[in-house]
Design a protein that fits this description.
This protein has 443 residues and is of the alpha/beta class. Helices cover 33% and strands 18% of the residues. The protein is built from 13 helices and 12 strands. Strands 1-2-4-3-5-6-7-10-9-8 form a 10-stranded mixed sheet, with helices on both faces. Strands 11-12 form a two-stranded parallel ribbon. A hairpin with a 5-residue loop joins strand 8 and strand 9. Helix 1 runs antiparallel to helix 2 and helix 3 packs antiparallel against helix 6. 41% of the residues are buried.
Length: 443
């Protein structure tokens, strides 16, 4: 899809206007930005919503030629008055002529279609990870709560469901530090023997929550099978009204600050309270959660042994909302120094229109870094499912440093996931299982 430069310009103006202003001003600015999507429809909707001065001034006319009753319809049924016009038509019911009443549904449908078309266009440019900025901390401005825009279809992909019932314990927790408070859910497998186990930190995508993400990825079932702990930090609607991790804010790209400090704090809390093998702590995520997983692995290489990214973006690939849009469409910024590269496995659909697949290529390029001494590429196909290309970048000793799965025909969804969760594609290779295999490979 061609980038809408006018929308970008309006969004930049909106970003500036949001700094230091209240919700009312922010609401006005964002609505103005949205008008560029379907300007002709917006004008038509305004015209349909307000009666014209000429019509108000004209005297009411009687319908001299009412439509005949249908065959088999009684005289009493044909005499039933038409449905009263809506308030938008603003004609007194006693004076409303039948043609005006009959036209009302057409006008209402026209407005409804305009909203649907605007929403569809908006979703293509502003997909799931784009939250309304709730804070401007990256630029040192005072924070305020953004208004919530509940647009139809904005939370697509599926509905959140309670995580599948399993024999282990799925408990709630909370962590607070100077950067804020986040809740989380922790799965402890029934197969636990009290011995130190691996820990996987799972970061959900936009509009998701721990239950939904656990259901879709089926990671808790793997935890039972492979004897590991899984913790799901939850983004709050106060921090981001669409529950996106704020990967594109500068303050959330720094060690010891913002959301990275909170996620690291949750990780360390679980390690302190449970038997965890400190050499087997991993972080993975989807979309905005995948971008944040990259940030966590980059900023805390001593804490996480490997990273899994599904449909995500590279470290510091954006610094504000407009650059986030650009990165998602494939215009990834220059690489920033990230220090030590840690093992990474990346999944991305080559038909992903939300986060361009070039981001997966860039993740592998940065992840392989100087550690890779060669690579092996092999094609494959899931029975009755997607074909894929798997590329493994190997270290000098033959162990994998970076692994890329390009899934042919797949969009923006967790590969091999359950349809009971949102943003999943059951036709793809099992990303959860392959990530666990990669994580537990001896290096």
């Amino acid at each position: 899809m061609k980038l809408n430069e006018k929308l970008f310009a309006n969004m930049r103006a909106a970003t500036k206007a949001l700094m230091g202003q209240g919700p009312k001003a922010a609401t006005s600015v964002i609505h103005e930005a949205l008008k560029v999507l379907t300007p002709h429809k917006a004008a038509a909707a305004r015209q349909a919503a307000a009666p014209s001065a000429a019509r108000d001034a004209a005297p009411a006319m009687r319908d001299l030629n009412p439509a005949p009753a249908h065959a088999g319809t009684s005289a009493r049924e044909s005499a039933v008055p038409p449905v009263p016009p809506t308030q938008a038509q603003a004609q007194p019911q006693a004076e409303a002529a039948q043609p005006q009443a009959a036209a009302a549904p057409t006008q209402e449908q026209y407005v409804k279609n305009a909203v649907q078309e605007a929403t569809a266009a908006f979703n293509k440019l502003m997909p799931d990870l784009l939250a309304k900025l709730d804070r401007a901390g990256a630029n040192g401005h005072a924070a305020f709560k953004m208004p919530h825009f509940d647009l139809p279809g904005m939370h697509g992909g599926g509905s959140a469901t309670a995580a599948d019932a399993l024999p282990g314990k799925f408990t709630d927790g909370s962590f607070t530090n100077a950067a804020g408070t986040r809740t989380y859910k922790l799965y402890e497998p029934s197969t636990s023997t009290g011995q130190p186990m691996p820990l996987v930190v799972m970061l959900h995508g936009c509009t998701q929550d721990p239950d939904d993400f656990a259901t879709g990825t089926q990671m808790n079932a793997l935890a039972e099978e492979m004897q590991c702990l899984v913790v799901y930090p939850a983004q709050s609607v106060q921090a981001n009204s669409s529950r996106c991790w704020n990967w594109f804010n500068a303050v959330d790209q720094q060690r010891g600050q913002g959301e990275p400090s909170i996620i690291a704090g949750i990780t360390e809390t679980v390690m302190h309270n449970h038997a965890v093998d400190k050499s087997q702590v991993y972080v993975a995520g989807l979309s905005a959660g995948g971008a944040m997983a990259t940030i966590m692995g980059t900023l805390y290489p001593e804490l996480y042994a490997a990273v899994g990214v599904h449909s995500g973006l590279p470290f510091a690939s954006a610094h504000d909302l407009p650059s986030a849009l650009a990165a998602m469409k494939g215009n990834v910024g220059p690489q920033k120094a990230s220090g030590k590269s840690i093992p990474i496995i990346v999944f991305h659909g080559d038909k992903d229109t939300t986060v361009h697949p070039v981001n997966g290529d860039e993740l592998i390029k940065r992840g392989a870094h100087q550690e890779s001494k060669g690579f092996v590429t092999e094609p494959g196909r899931v029975p009755d499912g997607h074909a894929y290309t798997r590329t493994v970048h190997q270290r000098a000793d033959g162990t994998p440093q970076a692994e890329q799965w390009l899934i042919h025909g797949a969009g923006h969804a967790w590969s091999g996931g359950s349809a009971r969760g949102s943003y999943t594609d059951g036709k793809g290779p099992d990303a959860s299982r392959e990530m666990m295999r990669f994580f537990q490979t001896k290096r």
